Amino acid sequence: MSIEAVQQELKEFVAEREWAQFHSPENLAKSVSIEAAELLEHFQWGVPTDDERGEVLDELADVLTYCLLLADRLGADPLEIIRAKLEKTRAKYPVGKTRGRSAKYDEL
Description:
single chain, globular, 5 helices, mainly alpha
């Protein structure tokens, strides 16, 4: 299934429930953060167990869902914005200087 098909399915899901009125960019961004925190909660005290995998994937799906809804609301193509950001990141962290190193702590 393509990302476009998933986005269309999400649009239909939201439209059937008349939830678009609640999906301002601000509310969707808040929801991304809230769901990301719920995902992080599973890692709070260590690596989740195999029994928790389903719950972790459900939370990850929630994060991705809100991200796709936000991209749609902003009129942005998710794959294009990811590719554009990847190009910026490639330029900022060239392989020759950053391979195997944490760019956050190491000077470039």
